[in-house]
Amino acid sequence: MIEVCQLEKTGFEREVLAAHAGQPRVVHRPRSTEEVQALVQGARARKVALHPLSTGLNWGYGTPSDVPVGVELIDLSGMNRILNADEISESNPVALIEPGVTQGQLADFLQARQPRLMFNVTGSARQTSLIGNALDRGVGYLGPRREDLFGLEVVTGAGTVIKTGFRRLGDESPLAHCHPFGLGPMLDGLFFQANLGIVTSACFRLIPRPPRQIAVSLALLNERDLPRFIAVLASLKRERIMGTVTHIGNRARTRASLMHGIVRYLEAQPGSASRDLMAEAERVLEIVAPDQWTSLGGISGTPGQVRAAFSEVRSRMRGIARVMSIDDAKLDFGYALLNAFRFIPWARANAAAIAAIRPLHGLASGHPTDAAIDNLLWKFGRADLSAASLGQTDCGILFISPALPMDGVFVAKVVAEMTARASKFGHQLYVTINIETENSMVAVTNLLFDRSDEAARANAAACANELHDLIRAYGLEVYRARMDMMNKIVEPDSEYWKTIQQLKSVFDPDHVISPGHYNIAA
Known about the structure:
The protein is α+β, with helices and mostly antiparallel strands. It is 36% helix and 20% strand. α9 packs antiparallel against α10 and α12 runs antiparallel to α13. The longest helix has 20 residues, at 454-473. The chain starts with a strand and ends in a 15-residue tail after the last helix.
């Protein structure tokens, strides 16, 4: 049965109530594709709009509180089955999942049932949706999530159900869950960053664990060499020497990622109550993270392949960056040794850094973590809450993330100007440049602010708008857009967006699903 209710004060519903002054909202909680189909058909008859949410944790881009009043929500988190759980194996590394399946859920399942398999995780929380993130073109630690998803089952805005690729032959077909392309035009792409239908299940690629895997940490020696640093990392990506996504973070991003873990380690030490832990944590950061730009990537393969690739990275980075390899054994040994000598400030600082790094290191091995969101909860004084509750805090976050060409000089110039522009608004810009493909990169940049402060909200919005204007002045565009940006990115006079609007009239003639989302508003 479809559950229809006004918002209860649990989970993301509290966030919506807070954002809309307690106005009642209708939330539908279907448990099957058939129930989603009935909801869409009913909405057409009632002439109301619907907006689907996988788990509602798309922080910084669009959460339940950003959905306009009058639009009914479809909470898909209850559709959380791994539909082919008994068929997944090393010879069949594909999971058929529903939109409520989270990256934490899939990681736990694989650990218990198929430990030789892993998948492309993101740095966001364990409770984030795999399908939801992929459909919004999120980027994981191994590559763009867009490439992980195929064989979609979709309830269109017209109330019909279609399956893309060879899933159209039926899920019993031997081709349904293995061949990503199908026959004829590929429809999959129409449902990424789109409002033409509601994806109710999809095939998700899994990856065999490599025999050997290391993380490669690099620290830029001189900030003026950032363009050269990016160029060398780009060549390593193109030549598949470092095949994962390479993350290049500025000082603000690196310190924000480590601070909470460092403080938590220091809090657990004897005598911590009598020390200024924040001041000590700052000193730790000066020891372990003094650099303006650091990078983290990965190398995997046979032991011989990993040794050869790491040697090549070190050779090319000579004189540009400090290079270090990291694996679980090194972390375990380093922590045990340094923690034993924690009465020495230098040893305590490095033990604290390892404690903070450990969960982040696991991302490249397919182990999702709440560490990044826990950092934000701590920063905004709510370390008592779970990561999924971030939307209930005063943490305001806005992403302005441009797609970029593989040009180190150009990218360094754009990022420097974005940083300077944010500074004029009193904002520190948190930047991670991700080399995600062999020909392009993206900069994941964000602002943080106290969203309980009206002036802070207005200032952050103005800053974000100016940063977007700057991006477009360079002939660029964001690779993911916030819900409040749709009127800026969608150009009604553009032939491209006119075509998207025409597709909307085919798949959703009554504009039932997410009106105006990545489309011309009706």
